[in-house]
């Protein structure tokens, strides 16, 4: 933004004075914020740093100690350099003590061997500074304009990073908090060299603050996030001399703001979309709105459902022991929506309750339901990743009209609930997959099934309630699960064979049943499965 001492020495008004750098050549690239002419020895008290001081030396101390103190005061305040015109105080050259003091501190010291009006120098330098500031202002305005347009357009992260690299003229990388690259632009450099071993390299870049420059690594870094939730870093590799200019920091921060805003907008839009989808699905299940209105609103969302082959789908957690997790269900709803898009299927998708996400899928043709559902399940697995918690994907029967969609959705809910403890190698559960346990689960709220359980097991359940330390239901379960193999059942129950036999005899007396009879054991086994289904259900009024 500011010209350097070297730039100023090359200006025509300064060259007119036949300048010669006599000390501090290593500091010639110091930026000059202002030019100040002064003839008093205590001028340092009036300066703020970054000034180029012009003097004829008339008011400077005559002794060596005073000269050293003068140079020390200027250096401590941070002046960019000192220019001394010869002829009025010093002839031939500046004092050697001044040269030595400036050289020791690395402060540029320039002598003008020809009389030069200082006003011409200050005018030229200040014009240069103002022009640089205007250029910087225009560049900042361009940055603001460019990223505002990207925000309005809803640009993807890759486009934002590309624009940042184009404006910065250097490679830019967007990474998440795990140091994985989300987007990058090499600005013409080699991508292989830029990204090879990125995670290890990135972890060594540790600047302080939300936006800071790591001089050792050569990267300017800013944090990406909003609403107190940081989710990544944006990095620009600076290959210039010294720290990067302020404009680059502004550019990187503006790009990071655009990325954070874009993520919030996409999440809010997806959240609103899921809310509308959920409202329409609930309306179908609860008959809360006329079917024609649901069809109209779905069509306005870009999801045509009328005159389509439809199938209800439910995706739910296998494990509900972890309790209610709204964020997990919301993420699952997003994954279901994305999987529908990847499988090129249209449909409504949204949370149904604290554990399940529902979808009403419009099929391309009547004969494509199995293939379409398999493609959806495969896409859902890819979207969620290998490490995601296990879920059950269940589908109801295909229906030909939106008025019948509720039946397919309810069936999918029942199948999903019944399949939670079933096989794990079935990509999409349908009604034929649920088996006896699934059938009993579907009938768990049926009073006749509950009456059957009480008739078969009621006496044994009452005994266990009276004898909590000597419960026998587990013994019966082990016996029936082993196929009536008493030796194997005793081993599974961690009991000796005599003790196990004695417990079986007590069960026979309590139930007044013959446990060697096949039909009796079959009835008891069905009752146990039904008992499990009834206990899993929530009481309904």
From TrEMBL:
Domain PucR C-terminal helix-turn-helix: 472-530
Naturally occurring in which organism (per UniProt): Phytohabitans kaempferiae
Family annotation (InterPro entries): CdaR-like_regulators (IPR051448), CdaR_GGDEF (IPR041522), PucR_C-HTH_dom (IPR025736), PucR_C-HTH_sf (IPR042070), PucR_dom (IPR012914)
Protein name as annotated: PucR family transcriptional regulator
Lineage of the organism: Bacteria, Bacillati, Actinomycetota, Actinomycetes, Micromonosporales
Domain CdaR GGDEF-like: 292-417
Positions of the Purine catabolism PurC-like domain: 7-129
Assigned protein family: Belongs to the CdaR family.
Pfam families tied to this protein: GGDEF_2, HTH_30, PucR
Top-rank taxon, per record: Bacteria
